[in-house]
Amino acid sequence: MRNSIRFLAVFPILASLCLVTGCQSVSINSNQYLGVPTYAPTDPAQIQILRKEPTEPHVQLGEVRAEPSSDDVSNQKIETSMREAAAKMGANAVVIVFDRTEVTGAMFVGPWYGHTAQLTTGRVVVGVAIRYTPSGG
After folding, report:
1. Are 36 and 84 in contact (CB under 8 A)?
2. DSSP line for 6-65
3. Which long-range contacts does 31-36 make (Cβ < 8 Å, 24+ apart)?
4. Using an 8 Å Cβ cutoff, are 89 and 129 in contact?
5. Beta bridge partners of 103
6. pLDDT digits (tens, 9 = 90+) for 100-120
């Protein structure tokens, strides 16, 4: 009983906070490639966001996929989230390879015997986390 009362007391605060911030969040998924060396985590603030592959020797560590919750999420917030995920892999940079709007899901509307599917779309940003190496491997 006390937990439900506590929840009811906190819920309006959380709901209003969500309205004020617009629930601007970024869903991040990262996958480290198999067979690549493992590195100690790096400082997210030092990770570069690149739009093309650098010419300096480097190794590709894995992919970072960002899906902002809405169009109102700033590029800075998306980049910060990607930096944090890449830092866990030990990256020095993230090379953006995909930044588009695509189908991210579907919602079924109507009764079970006559429902229709409405596709949901959203922005998806994919980057490859890289680490600079002295010899390229």
Report:
1. no
2. HHHHHHHHHHHHHHHHTT--EEEEEEEPTTPPP-----GGG-EEESS--SS-EEEEEEEE
3. 31/62, 31/63, 32/61, 32/62, 32/89, 33/60, 33/61, 33/62, 33/63, 36/60, 36/61, 36/62
4. yes
5. 121
6. 888 888 888 888 888 898 888
| 30-122-44 Cα angle (round to 5) | 35
**Within 10 A of 1 (CB to CB), how many other CB atoms are there?**
5
Please say whether the beta carbons of 134 and 57 come within 8 A.
yes
* Confidence (pTM): 0.74
Spatial separation of the C-alpha atoms in residues 30 and 1, rounded to whole Å: 40
Q: Which residues are CB-neighbours of 86 under 8 A, at least 6 positions away? A: 30, 42, 44, 47, 61, 64, 93, 94, 127, 129
Report how far residue 106's alpha carbon sits from residue 89's, in angstroms, rounded to the nearest whole number: 32
